[in-house]
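Researcher: Please predict.
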Amino acid sequence: MTHPDPQAKFKRVMLKISGEALMGDQSFGLNPPTVERIAREVHSVHEMGVEICMVIGGGNIFRGLQGSAQGMERTTADYMGMLATVMNALGMQSALEGLGIHTRVISAITMNEVAEPYIRRRAVRHLEKKRVCIFAAGTGNPYFTTDTAAALRANEMSCEAIFMGKNGVDGVYDKDPKTNSDATRYETVTYNEVLQKNLKVMDASAIALARDNNLPLIVFPLDTPGGFKSILEGRGTFTRVQG
């Protein structure tokens, strides 16, 4: 039984990662060693006694927007994207349970054979029992991204912050640091600035949902070993979006 670490900055957090984060150096799909590495990052924070929710995108398997751009009906394409997130959630559940962490995949689309249906009170109870809850299938509605699902579930679960793990970047920049050597990283930035300057952090509906409920967003490098845990300890490099 893990006991809350008095040093931990947050007691309950939402970790949002993209489906692409699970690809490793592949061009699509799941890379098991990469999934396992991310699971170890979650494990290190879980050991601190922090309660963890997760939302994982599905872009490594299927993107609804790309499908609709190629002529597929938008709602159908979005549902296919939601199913992709369930596959990623099951992969992450397997990796976490391999490390001895009790994990529940909770799906917004009913599929009782592989995941629990979303019932808020039951999910809260899982967190209280120190189980990791992975929320799959987005919000269960087309036209909403997994970013919005993360903001929605984080609010419903009374999370104290959303942690957005990024590959290759250590926060929010005023322009793309991969193509602009003079890009500047923000230590803190407001939600309104993110919207006004069109900083590609989350989509606008997710930003608005977090802003309206005063939920801080921590953007940090997922590919830095120990990065997730260090921020919970009050260290590390990241951008805090709030206000």
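Model: The chain has one domain: 12-242.
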